[in-house]
């Protein structure tokens, strides 16, 4: 039961941090991450401990449940909500990477079926090779195009719909959709293009 309880001061602190972030405080967004990371880990552990072996849980469900539990009906507006989901997406990414690295130490290869980014949401049981390759490719994209990297984080890891992603970033829906298509193509090429190149040129 302890994992199901959220201290009142946690939600109060989160509300204050969201208000500060929405007001432009650059340090407020950083304060969100540890709060969300801890809550998402509790939710993931609690949920998966009750599920059958091999069950998968979409990260969207975790992120949105964390939002409802921590913020509830106190809607901070899209500016504050955007900061929340950005931090939640980063926390979810860290949790998935940690799990993937643990699994990667236990298996090598195994003929896992690779998946593109279209119509796919990260899952708690997603193949470790896929999520680690995505993380590496996304890190490269974030270096060359931070805004596009943020869009991928919000939509893919944070579970926001494309209209919600556009609203959180303060850009038009058409721009968000166009950049998502481009980012998806770039990431897919970085993840799987290198594999195709190695198969075509085994000596490299």
- Tell me the radius of gyration: 18 Å
**Which structural category do the helix and sheet elements fall into?**
mainly alpha
Q: How many structural units, i.e. domains?
A: 1
Which percent range fits the helix content? over 70%
Mean pLDDT: 76
Number of strands: 0
User: Which segments are poorly predicted (pLDDT under 50) over 5 or more consecutive residues?
Assistant: 197-204
Number of helices: 8
First CA to last CA: what distance?
A: 54 Å
Largest sheet: none
Instruction: Give the helices and strands as they follow along the chain.
Output: HHHHHHHH
Strand proportion, as a percent range, falls in: under 5%
Envelope shape: globular
Written description of the protein model:
- It is a single chain.
- It is built from 8 helices and no strands.
- The protein is an all-alpha fold.
- The chain has one domain.
- It starts with 7 loop residues before the first helix and ends with a helix.
Please tag this protein with its features.
204 residues
Task: Please specify the SSE layout and strand pairing.
Elements: H1 8-22, H2 26-49, H3 59-70, H4 77-104, H5 128-144, H6 146-157, H7 162-169, H8 173-200
Helix pairs in contact: 1-2, 1-4, 2-3, 2-4, 3-4, 4-5, 4-6, 4-7, 5-6, 5-8, 6-7, 6-8, 7-8
